[in-house]
Design a protein that fits this description.
The structure is a homodimer. Chain A is an alpha/beta fold. Helix content of chain A is about 35%, strand content about 15%. Chain A folds into two domains: about 15-185 and about 295-380, 3-Layer(aba) Sandwich (Rossmann fold); about 190-290, Rna Polymerase Sigma Factor, Chain: A (Orthogonal Bundle). In chain A, about 55% of the residues are buried.
Chain lengths: ~375, ~375
C-alpha cells in the first residue's frame, strides 16, 4: 500500500478496460456488437475463486468505488468508507470487483462513446438499457474474470436493483445479495422526479435532441437543474434543516436581483448542480433514470414478487434508512415480506439516520457500518 | 344568478381594477408610485360593513376565486367549491373580496406591467416583494372599499402566510384568521425546491435575465420545468400512486427514443407544466417563490413566534392535511402551539387526505368542507 494513504485504505488503484467482442443482446431488441467495461478490483481472488464480491453502482456512480488514483488524489472512491482492509467489505478477505456500467460516462461504452458504425459519438442513438442488460454484461465480465459464483453482489439504490435482478437471472451464481436503500419498483412520485429532471435536460436548447456532442455543445444548465432535483430528493428535510437551516449566505435579508443566491442551501445546491454538470454526460443521466423508472422486479412473474423471489437461491441482507423518503423503509419492508413469503433467508435492518437516501453512501454511521460488516464477515469464502 | 350555472354557484362575476396613486413603500426600501389591483367581490357588503372576508391567494392563484367569467366558461374560479351561497364561505352571509396580488400576472401591477418611468415592461427591474407588502397593499384596498375590519382573512399556503401577517400588522382590523396548509417559515427543503424551480427558469436562454418581454421572448421550457417541480411536490406519493400508479401511456413496455413519454404520470406532469407556462409570467413565479422563501413570521420578534402572536387580537382556525409533505401538519402544529402559548383562541384540525398540499384546493373533501363551514358560520357579522 502506498505510504501517504490512510492505513485502512486500499491505497493506489488503477482501472482496467475489458473489451468484449461478442454481441450483447439487449432487452430493447437491439444489440451492441462491441463494447467495453472499465473495472477496478480490490483485494486478491483466492485459488477457489470463491471470494469475489460485485459492487453495483447507482445513478451517478462508477467503477472507482475505493482507494485513490494517484498520490495527489484528494478524494478516494465513492464507497471508500465501506470497502478496504478491515472495513465492511473487507479487502483482506474479499476480491472486490467494481465496474462502470454500460451506458455510463466514466469509460465504459455509453452514449458519449464512438459508434463504430458511424465513427461519431452515439448520442441519441445509443440503445436504451434496462437493469437486466447491466446484469447480463456483468455476467460476461464475471466469465472473463473466471468467477463462477459471487460470494456477494452488493449495491445501494439502483445498484441494489441490479443485485436483486442478479439473484433472479443467475440464481446459481450468487451466494449473498445485499440490497441497500432500494425498492422492487419506483413509485409514481419517484418516476415524476426523474421525468422532471429529464425534462430539464431535454428542454435545454444545447441538448440538440441528444446529439449535443455532434453539435459541439453541452446541455450544462439543464443537467445542472436535473442534478439539483435529484440531489435535493436524496437528502432529508430534517438533515437539510440541520445542515443549512435557513442560514443566509450574506448574513442579512437585504438583497438585490444582481445576486439572488441568499440562502446557504441555494448556493450549496447550485454548486452541486454545476459541478455535476461538468463531469457527467446528459445522455447517460437520461439513460440511467429511465432504467430506474422501468425497473419492475416482478413484472414478468405476473407482478408477484413472491413468485419472483422463489427463483433466488442466495441469502439476503436488506437495509433501509429511516429518513429516506425516495426509497423509504416501506419499500424495503415490501422486499423483506416477499422474501419471507418466498421462504428465503433474509436479514433486515432499518437504520436510524437523518441523511435521507444519501445515507447509504455516507461514512461514520456506526450502526450501518457494524451491521454491514457483521453480515459480510459471516459470509464463508 | 345566471341560469346555466349550478344553483350553489355565485354565477357570473366580473373583475374590477382599482388604481392607487399614493406610493406604496415596500420592504425592500423601494416604492411603487402608481399601482393597480384587480379584484373580484362576491355577495353584498352589509350596512355595518362587518361581513367582509378577504381571500389571499397562493403561489399560482389570482383574483378569480369563484363564479364564472362568462356563460361559456368551462371552469369556475379556483376556490369555487368553498365560496358561494351555502358553501364554507357563504356568500349569502359574507361579502368576499378576492384580489390578484401585486407582482402577479393576472391584471394587478407586476413584472409584466409597463413601468411608467420607461414606458416598457418592468421585467427584472420590478421590485422584490415580501408577504408584508401584499398585506399593506390589501389594507389600502380595504380602505378604498370602506372596510375597517375583516370578519375574516382566509388563505391556504402562501395565502395563509398573508393572513398571519395581517393578524400581526393590523391586529385591530382582523376578527378571524383562517390558516390552511401553511407554515411560519419554510424549511430548507422547501427553499431548495423553490430555488431549483427558479434555476430552471433563470437558466432558460429565453429568460434574458428577466427581460424576456423586451427581447420578445418567453422562457417557456424553464417555466414548464419549474411548474413540474412545484406541482409534483404539491401531490402526495400515495395520491399520485392511486391516480397514476405506474400506468403506461401506451400500455406496453416497448418504446423508442422518438416518444419517450411512457408513464401516465409523465404525460400528466408535462401537460401541467406546458399549460402553466403559457398562462403564467416567469418573473411573477420567481417573485412569488422568493416571497415564500423569505417569509419568516417571527423574524422581527426575536425569532419568538409566541411573542409575535401576542400582538394578534383575532381568533384562529388552523387546518392541515395528513399527506401534505411540503407544509406538513407538524408546521401547523407549531403555529397552534405558539398561538396557545400566546393565549390566543385557536381551533385546529388535521384533515385525513391523500391529496398532499393540493388538498386545500380540492373539492369534495367532506370533513374539511364541513369543519371549514362550521367555523365560518359561527363568525358573527
Amino acid at each position: 500500500m502506498s505510504k501517504p494513504f490512510p492505513e485502512d485504505s486500499i491505497g493506489l488503484v488503477s482501472p482496467q478496460t475489458y473489451p468484449f467482442d461478442e454481441p450483447l443482446e439487449l432487452a430493447c431488441g437491439k444489440s451492441l456488437a462491441q463494447w467495453e467495461l472499465v473495472v477496478e478490483t480490490y483485494g486478491e481472488l483466492n485459488a477457489e475463486k470463491s471470494n469475489a464480491v460485485l459492487i453495483c453502482h447507482a445513478l451517478s456512480g462508477h467503477h472507482h468505488a475505493a482507494g485513490y488514483h494517484s498520490e495527489d488524489d484528494k478524494k478516494p472512491g465513492w464507497w471508500n468508507h465501506y470497502i478496504g482492509p478491515g472495513k465492511a467489505i473487507d479487502t483482506s478477505r474479499f476480491y472486490v470487483v467494481s465496474l462502470n456500467n454500460l451506458g455510463g460516462c466514466h469509460g465504459s461504452t455509453g452514449p458519449a462513446s464512438i459508434n463504430p458504425e458511424t465513427g461519431k459519438p452515439w448520442g441519441k442513438d445509443f440503445p436504451n438499457l434496462r437493469v437486466r442488460d447491466w446484469v447480463h454484461s456483468q455476467a460476461k465480465l464475471a466469465d472473463k474474470l473466471g468467477i463462477e459464483k459471487w460470494a456477494a453482489v452488493v449495491g445501494g439504490s439502483l445498484g441494489a436493483m441490479q443485485c436483486m435482478r442478479w439473484a433472479l437471472e443467475y440464481p446459481e451464481r450468487v451466494a449473498h445479495c445485499v440490497v441497500i436503500a432500494s425498492a422492487m419498483k419506483l413509485t409514481a412520485q419517484n418516476i415524476a422526479f426523474n421525468e422532471t429532471a429529464r425534462r430539464a435536460i431535454m428542454s435545454d436548447p444545447h441538448f440538440f435532441e441528444g446529439d449535443y456532442l455532434l453539435n459541439e455543445s453541452l446541455p450544462s444548465s439543464g443537467l445542472s437543474v436535473a442534478r439539483m432535483i435529484g440531489h435535493l430528493t436524496y437528502l432529508s428535510d430534517d438533515g437539510m434543516g440541520k445542515k443549512f437551516g435557513r442560514e443566509l449566505r450574506s448574513g442579512s435579508f437585504e438583497r438585490g436581483r444582481e445576486d439572488p443566491v441568499e440562502f446557504q442551501i441555494e448556493s450549496y445546491l447550485r454548486y452541486q448542480g454545476e459541478t455535476f454538470s461538468k463531469s457527467f454526460d446528459a445522455n447517460t443521466y437520461i439513460l440511467m433514470t429511465r432504467a430506474l423508472d422501468y425497473f419492475d422486479l416482478a413484472r414478468e412473474y405476473d407482478d408477484d414478487p413472491v413468485a419472483a423471489f422463489r427463483h433466488a437461491l442466495c441469502k439476503f441482507l436488506v437495509i433501509s434508512f429511516t429518513s429516506d423518503w425516495r426509497f423509504s423503509p416501506e419499500r424495503s419492508r415490501e422486499i423483506v415480506n416477499a422474501l419471507m413469503r418466498a421462504d428465503k433467508d433474509v436479514v433486515y435492518a432499518e437504520i436510524e439516520s437523518s441523511y435521507g437516501h444519501d445515507a447509504f453512501l455516507i461514512p461514520n454511521q456506526v450502526r450501518y457500518q457494524e451491521l454491514f460488516a457483521a453480515y459480510m464477515n459471516k459470509i464463508k469464502v
